[in-house]
Amino acid sequence: MKKALIMWGGWLGHEPEQVGQIFQNVLENEGFKVHNTSKMDVLSDLENLKEYDLFIPLWTMDEIKKEYVENVSEALGKYGTGMAGCHGGMCDAFRQSTKWQFITGSQWVDHPGNDGIEYTVNIKKSSDSEIIKGMNDFKVVSEQYYVHVDPAVNVLATTRFPIYHGYYESNGCVDVPVVYTKRWGLARIFYNSLGHVAKVFDIPEALELMRRGFIWAAR
Question: Whole-prediction pTM value?
Answer without folding.
Answer: 0.98
